[in-house]
Design goal:
383 residues; mainly beta; 23-stranded mixed sheet; two-stranded antiparallel sheet; 8% helix
């Protein structure tokens, strides 16, 4: 029987999802991507505040005997409050959506590190868990968390403080992680999902770092000579996402599972008013008149050929630009390939870029169950 790690981690604790994607990039910037894993590897990094002597003794024993061994680790982001429990109950009432419980799996019913028990799950429904056997103990207040089979890394740390308490940390890799749940995408346009803007948490805007792959040659004359290896500039964009409720954290995880690391492209608006409409758009029109913004030049880049129009009522309208021309009076005319509804001048018009994640490792920083932050990067691509 594998050892159980019943300690509650300090917040935030880290959950890393690690995909494996093979990306082959042509000189033009076009990419061929293939997934080398069917699902992500799950790595959990925990830090513990060990106040009581019994906790320190248990951590000492587990850390020295669990290295590279299989052990049971609660997935604390899926923790659910149960209230008081009597001995002999076999039904645990809680909201199971997105918690990670599954039939045939295990759960840890726990009050604290010295009062807990392992339970096998017979069935899962939206309102609770049915256990394969009744609970042996009673608890004045308890929580339940999915129990993962993990393998502990070969290194751990423990720092004993002058106050008498200790800080311990360890890293675990899940052996049988929950199968990826991609859910269903929200707005899909031209076979790619539109970024769920409601999860975006950075109020300072979106930073972009553009570059073009090139090699600089030294011809010994002091001049600059470059061999450019891509036909257009690609930007790297930091993404900062936040979920404050179990429903939002489930939506965030599903979005990440749909992206599968660097595999799947999605549409990413700039999030700002890049273009200013100079006149309202009539119902069924395909032409937008905007204040001059050198759109004719921008359309030379394949990364700047799509727009996102956000109407005052919140409707999101992605459109592809087919042509642009300059008008007199500091105006420009953009023609899109699909008809538009009536749009007022106050509508926000942003450039819409096709992007993918720039790394196969995504780290979720959990502040508590149902509340997490993600900081990652996206890289622009084009069809």
């Amino acid at each position: 029987m594998s050892a159980i790690w019943p300690f509650r981690p300090l917040a935030p604790h880290l959950e890393a999802l690690e995909w494996l994607t093979d990306v082959q990039t042509a000189r033009s910037g076009l990419e061929l991507r293939s997934a080398l894993r069917t699902g992500p590897r799950v790595v959990l990094e925990m830090e513990y505040n060990l106040r009581a002597p019994a906790e320190r003794a248990r951590f000492e024993a587990l850390s020295y005997t669990s290295q590279d061994q299989v052990c049971g680790l609660p997935w604390w982001p899926g923790q659910r409050d149960l209230g008081p429990l009597a001995a002999g109950v076999s039904r645990l009432d809680c909201d199971t959506a997105g918690a990670g419980f599954r039939p045939g799996g295990r759960a840890l019913v726990i009050r604290h590190a010295e009062s807990w028990e392992e339970a096998e799950i017979a069935a899962v429904d939206p309102d609770g868990l049915t256990l394969a056997a009744p609970l042996a103990g009673s608890y004045p207040r308890a929580q339940a968390a999915p129990l993962l089979s993990c393998r502990m890394d070969l290194a751990f740390t423990r720092r004993d403080l002058p106050t008498g308490r200790s800080l311990g940390s360890a890293v675990f890799t899940a052996l049988d992680p929950e199968p990826p749940d991609p859910g269903r995408a929200g707005t899909v346009w031209e076979h790619a999902e539109l970024f769920p803007q409601r999860l975006w948490c950075d109020q300072e805007g979106m930073e972009r770092r553009g570059s073009r792959a090139a090699e600089e040659l030294d011809n010994r004359t002091g001049g600059v000579r470059r061999v450019v290896h891509s036909e257009s500039t690609a930007s790297v964009i930091p993404l900062r996402l936040r979920a404050d409720t179990p429903e939002q954290s489930l939506e965030l995880r599903r979005f990440l599972h749909r992206l599968s690391g660097r595999l799947t492209a999605f549409w990413l608006p700039t999030g700002r008013a890049d273009l200013a409409l100079a006149a309202p758009v009539a119902q069924g029109a395909t032409v937008l008149t905007v204040a001059a913004a050198s759109c004719v030049q921008l359309l030379a880049s394949p990364a700047r050929r799509a727009l996102c129009l956000r109407a005052p009522d919140g409707a999101v309208l992605p459109r592809r630009v087919s042509s642009a021309r300059a008008l007199d009076g500091g105006l420009e005319e953009l023609t899109v390939t699909e008809a538009l509804p009536a749009i007022p001048v106050s509508a926000r018009v942003s450039w819409l870029a096709l992007a993918r994640l720039d790394a196969d490792r995504v780290e979720l920083s959990w502040e508590r169950a149902g509340c997490c932050r993600v900081e990652t990067r996206a890289r622009e691509v084009w069809l």
